[in-house]
Each structure stands twice: as structure tokens, then as C-alpha cells.
Design a protein that fits this description.
Shape of chain A: globular
Largest sheet of chain A: 5 strands, antiparallel
Number of strands of chain A: 5
Radius of gyration of chain A: 16 Å
Low-confidence stretches of chain A: none
Oligomer: homotetramer
Mean pLDDT of chain A: 95
Structural class of chain A: alpha+beta
Number of helices of chain A: 3
Chain lengths: 135, 135, 135, 135
């Protein structure tokens, strides 16, 4: 990957695990979302203010591979990249590491929508900021 | 308990359990809430319509005892009672059974609020319906 | 799709929604998992007994498209199909409907593992049962 | 409160909120549990190692008051205190602050159990460490 990498850590608590003793598969999507929210904040965007202006993001698709399990008290490292900036969409690629092992990778597509859940073009300011991250 | 009992079943899936092999303690509060929503619907109330009229309910307190664990694929039976109808509040008592064993009991206080999260009196219609359940 | 369809209903409660007013994207994966567990039970398999024999299933990949949002109190219909039976893997395709609208579709790959999280071939009994569903 | 205070911060993400726009009430129990796990780690205990020795903790009761709501992107401060050390039990009191406002307070009782979910006395080492926190 080239382009700016955003790095965040996530610690695994009881709530994240299931009775097979590992992190439950749906929870990885919550980690991806936390990481995307942190990315936006690091780029200077305030999700609450965007929302007040009628700018929202929804997930249009997720493609995720589970390579290795994670366990209680593990500390995961997420490396998130913006891989494409479309007219009204945004692609993220994320690798999750447990110690030095790659345990999960995913592609997520977000779509920018208005208050009525209709797609709308990214503002120029958003697009410029995101494009700076591409490389 | 005297008064009308509302009964609902909840099945335990992987998402409900944690790495100790049992249902995670916070998830019982989600079952209580599902059961309260079903109660309101059985009494003829539509939460979406109430919300449109500016009538919302929030939880003010929970007092819950965990007596026995529950496991994957168990089917829990919730018996919910309305125990008190206040000016702007509502008390629920719930017993959760796993087969014939009582595994959990709780008291929950709801407060009726408006769009600005300020308490407001229950409408007469709501109060009457709830009082009918008291016995 | 040809092949046997497994149908299950999921009702949306507060816990399923987020502050954008719709079902949170990660929760769809919990619905898919509930549906898969129901499929296995309908086919006569008991997940607890399989586990005792050292037969577990983990998710290897998910490819999911979010087409339309879902809201509080909606009742979703999941139509699940087994689309491929591999030596140690199993593919599911699921469509989620809200009233008559298709709101979500996904492909999930499961891998059969042993107690040590190593892939192991499906037993003949499992493979036969799953293959019967293919068409 | 006198006694040692353990302080932890929790950031609110989409997954924590519901369609009323605030943090869903059951999620506070997940924050309390994260905080208790951090307490134990700060006191030098390793939950995985305790588990291997057959020492587990389960929640026996929760008494929680919801005073004010919390919102997306808020950063909550949890102040946790050990308030009682019993033969086989442990009491925690926690206050949650949003900026300078107290939004939630709770008492939680944990019971020390063995592999078979039977209560067992706290080891001397655990009891001594916990008692040091009482004041």
C-alpha cells in the first residue's frame, strides 16, 4: 500500500468475544468503523457538524477476510488507508494486526448521503482532504 | 406477583455469549428492552407513532440480579410485569427462566420524556392502559 | 437461486439501531449468523454436540452489500441458501427483505475447524446433508 | 468516596448509540466491565492467567442509575472504586462523567467462581490487593 496510513489500537474485552473463545466476527466491523471515525477526526472533520449540514456517510459494501482469531486482552493494531475517492463515495482498505501477525483485511465502500438517505457528491473540501491521503 | 404477565421467548446465539462460555451480562438488558417493546406493542402502542408525537421513554434505573448462567442455543422465557405507574414514570419487574429455573430478575424504571429529554407526564391514554396491567 | 431456501424473520429493536436512526451495519452480520444457526438446526445438527465432537465452524470471509436501510420495529425476512459445499468449507448466500424490498445481500464462507482452530474436512454426514440443499 | 480511584476514558462510537440519538442503556454495562478489567490489570492481575488457574469472576448484581444521556463522539470518564471485599465477592462503585457532569452511577457485585461456576473464596493475594484499594 502506498498513501497515508492511519493507525489505531483496539483492546479486546469480554464483550468482544463469544463462546468459542475468540472475537465474534461481526465485532470486527465495529473496529473498522471506530477506525474510520478516528481517520475523519484526524483529517479535521467533525461528524456531528457534518451531520448538522446534512452530510452523512453510510456503508454500501464490506468485503472482509478473517485470517486468524483474536482473544481476550489482545491489543489489535488497525492500519487504515483511503484507497479511492469517488464523486459520492469513498473506499477504505484496512489491515488488522495482532502483535506482528496480519489477522484480518477488508475493503469498505462508504457513500455520502443527505438527510433523506439519497447519495450526494462529496463537498470539494472533503474530496480534497481525502485525495491528499491517496498517496 | 399479581397483575398481567407478558411472556416472551429469547433464543441465545453466538453474539450473546462471551469467552467464559455464557451469556454476557450486559446482553440481559437488551432482552429486557425487547420484552418491554413487545409489551407496549401488545398493549396497542406504536413506538414510532409515539415518537412522532414527542413521547419517548428512557431508562432511569436498573436493578438486576444474575442467579444462573445461560448458554448457546438456550431459549429463555421472560415474564414481565408492570409494577407501578407514576406521573411520568413506569416500573417493570421481569423474571427470566431457562427451562423451569429462574436465572435472572430485575426492576427497571422508565421515565417518559419529550424531544428535549425533559420528563413529561404520561398521557391519560398511556396511564390508563398501563394501570389496567397492574392487576 | 435454485436450491433449498431457509427463511427466518428478525425484528429490529433499539439495540440494533444507531444514532443515524437505522440499523447499524455490523448488526447484519449477527442476523446472518442467527440464520445460519437456524439452518443447521433445521437440518438436524446440534451445534453444542458438534462442538463436543471437536467440530466447529468459523467465518473465513464475508462479502456484503447494503442496499437500503432498516428501521426500529421493522421485521426483516432472511432467505438463506447453501451455495457450495467444499472439502472443509461451506458457502452461504443470503438475501434480506424488508416487506417486499431487497435491502441486503451477502456471501459468507465458513470453514470447518477442530479444537485447535485448524481446518478439518466436513464429516460425510455433514457434507451429504449440505449437498442436499444445493438443489 | 475514599479509597483508590481508577480512572478510564471511553469514547462513544456509532455502535454505542441507538435511534433515539443517545448511548443505548445496556452499553454502559460494557463500559463498566472494561473499566473493571483495566482495574484488575493495573493491580497486576492477568485475567487469562487467573482463568487458567480456575479463578473466574461473574457479575451477581448491578444497580445502575442513568442521570443524563451521552452522545456520539463524547469522551466519558469512568471513576471506579472497590467498595467492599467479601470472602468470595467484590463490590465496585463507578461514576461516569461527561465533561464535568455526572451522568451515571452504579454498584456492581462480582462473585469469584471456579471452572464449574461454583463460588470459591478469593485467594489471599487477590484479597490483599483489593483491600489495599479500599482506602
Amino acid at each position: 500500500m502506498i498513501g497515508r496510513s492511519f493507525e489505531h489500537k483496539i483492546k479486546i474485552y469480554y464483550q468482544d468475544t463469544d463462546c468459542e473463545g475468540v472475537v465474534y466476527y461481526a465485532n470486527y466491523l465495529t473496529y473498522l468503523e471506530r477506525s474510520r471515525m478516528e481517520c475523519l477526526e484526524e483529517l479535521g472533520f467533525d461528524l456531528k457538524k457534518l451531520k448538522e449540514k446534512g452530510i452523512l456517510f453510510v456503508v454500501a459494501s464490506v468485503d472482509i477476510r478473517y485470517l486468524l482469531p483474536a482473544y481476550l486482552a489482545d491489543i489489535l493494531l488497525l492500519k487504515t488507508y483511503i484507497t479511492k475517492v469517488g464523486v459520492a463515495s469513498l473506499n477504505f482498505y484496512c489491515e488488522i494486526y495482532n502483535k506482528s501477525l496480519l489477522i484480518n483485511k477488508s475493503n469498505v465502500t462508504l457513500v455520502c448521503i443527505d438527510d433523506n438517505f439519497k447519495p450526494q457528491p462529496l463537498t470539494e473540501q472533503l474530496r480534497d482532504k481525502f485525495k491528499e491521503c491517496l498517496q
